[in-house]
Amino acid sequence: MKKVIGIVEIILGAIIAVGPYTFLHVCGAGMAMEGEMAMRPVCQGIPPITLILGAIILIIGISEAFGFTDKLLGSNGSKLFAGIDVVLGIVVIGVPTFIVGVCSSAHMHCHAVTRPALIILGAVVAIIGAVEFVFLRKSK
Q1: What are the start-end ranges of the E strands in the chain?
Q2: What is the pLDDT of residue 140?
Q3: 33: burial class by Cβ within 10 Å (0-12, 13-18, 19+)?
Q4: φ and ψ of 87, to 5 deg
Q5: pLDDT of 73-88, one tens digit each?
Q6: pLDDT value, residue 28
Q7: From CA 113, how far away is CA 118, in angstroms rounded?
Q8: Residues 26-53: tens digit of each pLDDT
Q9: Alpha-carbon distance 54 to 14, whole Å?
Q10: CA–CA distance, 33 with 3 (Å, rounded to integer)
């Protein structure tokens, strides 16, 4: 089960890390030529923050998928990483909602696509972490 969770976390971490730079982009200066408005100064913080959060989730997924967690941290390492996943999922949800925020205009890409996608991805990471934590707690 740890390998499956690790692989799912690798995929989610990669999407969270590169999504705001690619298909989950926030409105930017380069897009102003395509007819979209320039990025709000606050929105500029979303891609680098999600890159860091996604990279951490990706590293945790790699360590769980390849069994490094228990080797490095012992039997409680998986529980620790599951708890960290819950916190990281909540932070990913918070980035477009209350930590950084996005445009209030409903037709902007950051409001219509980036925000809901990051909320869903963060919720999935948090739920996976919580389920893993409960499963590990019951199995011991």
Answers
A1: none
A2: 59
A3: exposed
A4: -65, -45
A5: 776 778 888 899 999 9
A6: 64
A7: 9
A8: 876 445 445 555 555 667 788 999 999 9
A9: 6
A10: 44
